[in-house]
Write a structure and sequence with these properties.
Layout lengths: L1 E2 L5 E2 L2 H9 L1 H12 L1 H4 L8 H25 L4 E3 L5 H14 L3 E9 L2 E15 L2 E10 L7 H18 L5 E5 L5 E5 L4 H16 L21 H10 L11 H9 L5 H6 L10 H17 L7 E3 L19 E8 L6 E9 L11 E6 L3 H21 L5 E3 L3 H12 L4 H9 L3 E3 H8 E3 L6 H4 L14 H13 L2 H15 L10 H30 L19 H26 L1 H4 L2 H10 L1 H17 L3 H5 L4 E13 L2 E7 L14 E3 L5 E2 L1 E5 L6 E7 H4 L6 E6 L7 H16 L4 H7 L23 H13 L5 E5 L6 H14 L4 E4 L3 H9 L10 E4 L6 H7 L8 E4 L15 E4 L1 H4 L2 H5 L2 E6 L7 H7 L3 E8 L20 H6 L10 E3 L2 E2 L4 H11 L5 E2 L7 E3 L11 E6 L10 H14 L3 E3 L5 E3 L5 E4 L3 H10 L5 E3 L1 H4 L4 E7 L11 H5 L2 H8 ...
Parallel strand pairs: 3-4, 6-7, 10-13, 13-14, 23-29, 23-30, 24-27, 24-28, 25-26, 25-27, 28-29, 31-32, 34-40, 37-38, 37-39, 39-40
Antiparallel strand pairs: 1-2, 4-5, 5-6, 7-8, 9-15, 10-11, 11-12, 16-17, 16-22, 17-21, 18-19, 18-22, 20-21, 33-35, 35-36
Length: about 1150
């Protein structure tokens, strides 16, 4: 920001980025401009590394300029030369008016903003300038795009709109490797508008007086003012310094008159509204010990002895082979990179760190990451095999999460990692400290805890945040290439004697890691000393005494077959790795990633047990595969088994279908059978266990973990091997080539059936007929039909399949869920004239249950098969329509008698691996779904697109299927345009329109206090604080909204008006806890649930309860609450009106990366 010579205050896009990071820092920037004498003495944190990167950024910008001039000619690039911003802006405008293909260093101005776009690039498309317009391109030294780059580009696009009359659709970031990342501005624009609006409001209210300075307690990032912010917090004895305190706690304490740490420490009251008693007691104890530690060389501490098993009693005895472990990771790369695995240990003969033996494993590429991970696991696991009493100590969960993630991502060392976790070899000191020590420090990081057992650090890299910046700077200066070319070969040959002087930046990071691992060792010893001093015994049981059950003959046979299959997969991977041509083939790369899909999906299920063991009661309550706190009421002995009968809280979100067998929390005791029974309130449960296991079971309250149901995917994996083998041999089918290569569909007569658009076929009948004829003309190919909300996907599929069947074609219907398959089958019986249809699976072995719903007299040719086993009288090939999951279509009979067409319904949820596996069961594949609604629910970490859905793969980065590849059903017959419009703009690239008759749909409430509009998206603000996943305040407001709605009328698309009822209202919430609260609090019979329950449903009005007070403090964070797909599904259930009930300013949140910026921007669009 600066003042012009005429006294006008002008802002830049960089000012917006500063305000986004810190309102405190932004305010001080303004103060430094207005009253520099007030800020002259304030400490400022100037980073020389940033200055170096800025210089290199200028060099990169010049390199791109030269590249453009070489490619397009020097005369094609207009260079702005004027000195002053005003003249530069005029020169820029002159070049734009003249239609220069490229403009370098363009000066843009609009209202109070001015900035230099690195490049403007001319694009076709009308504007005030003529038949062309400009979009902004910015060069960045970074190898990955950052969200603050996009704030700048949105600002440039907004300024361009002021000149040319329309906002460009896209903008480009030219990265440090000259890659051009293109972004759709609409996806991020509302976030920018929100930031700009709040920034201008703050600037309008600015007063150059320190008394009006924003409170740093509510910011996390202060930019160059961090040291001064710390000084302010300490001088004011801010509550923000109390370890573990939340912003909502600070607000509530201040409301009660407690404004300092000392005030909280000395407070004599017993209750603060909105803060639970146990939380308040912990905060007060923490404030007290921190307050008393002020001015001391070492902070005070107190050992907590509360009888729990989570404090110092969780610390094992020492072993000579113990390992002290720390990882340095880089979160700024897609998926992250764990680049340094370091371990300190006691061994005087080994290579030494500073005080103890030290071993490290380095990785700067994904391939090296796999080797580093394997190296550490093999070394640590080997030590454990020698001494089963050894442990691996680490601080916080990062290391364990990384081990689990990489075992899945790289498909390696799963057995070893699982054994280490199952036997409690990994010891998290953070959990032990947090539950066992009360410490007079503002945080419980190891950097703070070590103040009681060691001196001050002296390494150049001082913190985890520093290490990220340090490492990113090294990468951006070409460090990875230098390492791979020169450092890595030497280091792998002789790691213990490697000369780190040749890589000083990495050596700084190595010394930092050594300091961390040695501090972990010293922390363990200090904790063990406190454990002994206070007579606390180690209380964790190991799994060594668990009896080993012998496998049956069938289990051994299955294990042998599984081993053969894994060997076949490994041989294909080995062939791929040894063949340079295959490694360069994108289809082969994808196919190899798909080979491991099912194995990677199984692995997270193994981790589920360990994850749930570490969950808090709050998270367990919201886990639909955990039955929390079952209260036992009686036992019944049944021979060798015992049935435990108990009650549980019915408000828990329980997936009863998941509870077939289970495991008791805190033990490995197995539950053989689980039955839910109706005991008046529907909350009874019966748990059948071996009587011997029940003998030592004295707990009155039990928590039950549902065992993951086993689904045999051997056949699917075998089919993937067959496809891979054919691909490697060059003999794969055309359908596989089309799908893996993302090729345009092929048609029998070679005619141009695509594109199919409303512009080309405005009449509904012509449009539908064009789609039908296109599908009929498919020639061994794949076609996608994307159906956004209310666009008639099932209606379209019904008509296509009916005509195909009438023409003598055989059709299959595949989906992830039996419900989706049945939904489409149900629509086909009458239109096809009751053609022979079979449903495979979905009713188990229960033919009676199937016939109870589908009476033979009403469905004369509808047959149920429990599996893909058919009779001579009714063979597989005799059915016109077959409905089955991927497992069904992988059967031999499906490949022996391939269908003419396979329709994949809800294709956004069907894994690409499953579809590729069954492609031999049909000549043509039609994908139907919408990847912008509920996505493919994968659990594993998958490399190289190995975990994407079929539709997600085909569409790539597009939100809407390209016209050359498929059909976008561009008209919604459900939503009023006012509801549809924001979804169309942001989610569907502006291509979704509402049917004209939808405009008749409206809600009318006379003199409504809350319901104040008839159509569109209405925001009802409800203030609340401290709610992390449910809100009584919102529940109360929703009751009032429903009462108002039911006094009003609804007009449908035919223009008919009637009174509103409960059936016209859906209530949606992101969290199960809020759903349960709403079910308890709301009057009437409105449907209530999460979006998962309502996909495919609709109502005149949808009420969305956001439930949380603050995104940063919510239990599942921004990525869940603002998830675009889930919000899209929620809003698009509404025909006339979507009502969002939310805490005011919920959208004012910090974002971490571009995906979060996109999500926050979408929510901002909805509520503004």
């Amino acid at each position: 920001m600066h003042y012009t010579s005429t006294g006008q205050l002008v802002f830049s896009p960089s000012d917006l980025n500063q305000s986004m990071r810190s309102s405190f820092g932004s305010w001080l920037d303004r103060l430094a401009l207005e009253q520099p004498e007030l800020t002259a003495a304030m400490p400022k944190d100037n980073d020389p590394m940033m200055a170096l990167l800025a210089s290199k950024g200028n060099t990169h910008e010049t390199s791109f300029l030269l590249r453009l001039q070489e490619l397009h000619g020097k005369d094609s690039v207009a260079v702005v030369h004027s000195d002053t911003p005003g003249f530069r802006a005029k020169e820029t405008h002159a070049y734009m008016s003249a239609g220069a293909p490229f403009i370098y260093q363009a000066q843009l101005q609009r209202e109070q903003f001015s900035g230099n776009a690195d490049f403007l690039v001319r694009k076709p498309g009308p504007s005030n300038l003529g038949d062309y317009h400009y979009e902004a391109w910015d060069t960045k030294l970074s190898l990955t795009a950052k969200h603050f780059f996009l704030v700048q580009l949105c600002c440039y696009s907004w300024m361009l709109e002021g000149i040319q009359g329309n906002r460009p659709d896209e903008a480009v970031i030219v990265l440090g490797d000259m890659a051009e990342d293109r972004f759709q501005i609409a996806k991020y624009y509302d976030y920018f508008l929100r930031v700009k609006r709040e920034f201008l409001a703050a600037q309008a209210d600015f007063k150059a007086d320190l008394g009006f300075m924003p409170d740093p307690a509510f910011d996390n990032d202060y930019g160059r003012w961090a040291s001064y912010a710390k000084q302010v917090l300490e001088t004011t004895d801010s509550l923000a310094l109390v370890a573990g305190i939340r912003k909502s706690h600070i607000r509530k304490l201040r409301k009660a008159g407690i404004v300092t740490m000392a005030g909280l420490a000395s407070w004599q009251g017993t209750d603060i509204k909105g803060i639970p008693q146990t939380t308040l007691a912990k905060l007060q104890a923490q404030a007290d010990i921190q307050h008393r530690s002020k001015g001391l060389d070492k902070p005070l501490f107190k050992v907590i002895q509360d009888g729990s098993d989570k404090g110092l009693c969780a610390l094992p005895p020492a072993s000579a082979l113990d390992v002290y472990f720390d990882i340095e990771g880089h979160p700024l790369l897609d998926g992250g990179l764990e680049y340094l695995w370091g371990a300190s240990y006691r061994c005087p003969d080994a290579a030494q760190g500073t005080l103890y033996a030290y071993k490290d494993w380095w990785a700067h590429t994904p391939e090296q990451e796999k080797l580093a991970f394997e190296g550490f696991i093999d070394w640590a696991y080997g030590r454990w095999q020698v001494d089963r009493s050894m442990h691996i100590y680490h601080y916080a969960n990062y290391e364990v999460a990384a081990m689990r993630k990489l075992s899945i991502r790289h498909d390696t060392r799963l057995k070893e990692v699982a054994e280490l976790l199952a036997n409690n070899v990994m010891v998290d000191l953070y959990r032990i400290v947090l539950n066992g020590i009360l410490l007079g420090e503002a945080r419980y990081s190891i950097k703070n805890v070590e103040h009681v057992y060691r001196g001050k650090r002296s390494t150049d890299v001082a913190s985890g945040g520093d290490s990220v910046i340090h490492y990113e700077a090294w990468r951006e200066q070409g460090g990875v290439k230098q390492w791979c070319d020169h450092g890595y070969p030497l280091w792998t040959a002789k790691p213990d004697s490697f000369d780190w002087g040749t890589f000083p930046a990495l050596n700084d990071l190595r010394l930092y890691n050594i300091d961390d691992t040695e501090s972990t060792l010293e922390c363990t010893e200090w904790l063990r000393g406190q454990q002994q001093l206070h007579g606390i015994a180690y209380a964790i049981k190991t799994e060594d005494d668990k009896p080993v059950q012998e496998k049956t003959g069938r289990q051994l046979q299955n294990a042998e077959k599984k081993q053969e299959l894994q060997g076949r997969i490994q041989r294909l991977i080995d062939r791929y790795e040894s063949d340079g041509a295959l490694k360069d083939d994108p289809k082969a790369q994808l196919m190899v990633a798909l080979l491991g899909f099912h194995n990677r999906e199984r692995k997270p299920k193994i981790w589920a047990h360990f994850e749930r063991l570490n969950k808090t009661d709050e998270l367990l309550y919201d886990d639909d595969t955990a039955l929390h706190k079952v209260t036992l009421v009686r036992r019944e002995v049944l021979g060798d088994d015992t049935k435990l009968i108990g009650h549980y809280d019915p408000k828990q979100p329980i997936r009863k279908d998941k509870f077939v067998t289970g495991t008791l929390k805190g033990s490995e005791l197995k539950i053989k059978a689980i039955a839910f029974v109706d005991e008046g309130q529907g909350r009874g449960v019966e748990l059948t266990m071996a009587s011997g296991d029940c003998e030592g079971l004295n707990d009155d309250e039990l928590t039950v973990f549902a065992d993951e149901l086993y689904i045999n995917t051997d056949k699917l994996e075998t089919r993937l091997c067959e496809v891979c083998e054919a691909l490697f041999a060059g003999g794969h089918p055309a359908t596989v080539e089309t799908l893996l290569g993302r090729l345009n569909p092929a048609f029998i007569d070679g005619q141009g059936y695509l594109p199919i658009t409303r512009e080309r076929y405005p009449d509904n009948k012509d449009y539908l007929n064009a789609i039908i004829q296109t599908v009929k003309a498919m020639a061994n190919t794949c076609l996608a039909i994307q159906g956004p909300p209310g666009a008639g996907k099932t209606f379209t599929a019904k008509h296509i399949i009916t005509e195909l069947v009438q023409d003598g074609n055989r059709v299959g219907i595949l989906s992830n869920s039996h419900a989706a398959i049945l939904n489409l089958l149900d629509a086909l019986h009458e239109p096809t004239g009751h053609a022979p249809i079979t449903k495979v699976g979905g009713y188990g072995n229960n033919q009676d249950a199937f016939r109870e719903k589908y009476h033979e007299e009403d469905y004369p040719n509808y047959v149920y098969r429990t599996s893909m086993v058919f009779t001579k009288k009714q063979p597989y090939e005799s059915f016109a329509v077959v409905g089955a999951t991927a497992n069904g279509f992988s059967a031999d009979i499906a490949f022996e008698h391939p269908l003419d067409y396979l329709f994949v319904d809800e294709a956004s949820q069907v894994p690409l691996a499953n579809l590729v596996a069954v492609m031999g069961s049909a000549r043509n594949i039609v994908l139907m779904g919408d990847q912008m609604q509920l996505p493919n629910p994968t659990q594993g970490s998958h490399p190289n697109n190995g975990g994407v859905s079929a539709l997600e793969w085909l569409l790539g980065n597009h939100s809407v299927i390209p016209q050359s590849q498929g059909i976008f059903l561009e008209k919604t017959y459900r939503m009023h345009w006012d509801v549809c419009h924001p979804l169309s703009d942001v989610v569907y690239e502006g291509k979704l329109v509402a049917d004209g008759d939808n405009q008749h749909q409206s809600v009318k409430v006379t003199d409504g206090r809350l319901v104040t509009q008839a159509t569109g998206i209405l925001v009802v603000p409800v203030e609340h604080d401290g709610n992390r996943q449910s809100s009584e305040e919102e529940a109360s407001a929703i009751n009032d909204i429903i009462d108002e709605l039911k006094t009003g009328t609804y007009t449908d698309k035919n223009g008919e008006t009637r009174m509103m009822t409960d059936d016209d209202i859906l209530v949606v919430a992101p969290h199960n806890m809020q759903v349960n609260l709403l079910k308890e609090r709301l009057k009437g019979n409105c449907a209530i649930g999460t979006v998962d329950k309502f996909q495919g449903k609709e109502a005149q009005v949808v009420i969305i309860s956001m439930s949380v007070s603050d995104i940063e403090e919510s239990s599942r964070g921004l990525d869940f609450v603002f998830d675009i797909n889930r919000l899209n599904v929620a809003v698009s259930r509404a025909k006339a009106l979507a009502i969002i009930v939310a805490n005011p300013g919920l959208e004012r949140c910090k974002v971490n990366g571009i995906p979060q910026m996109e999500k926050a921007s979408f929510f901002s669009r909805l509520v503004n």
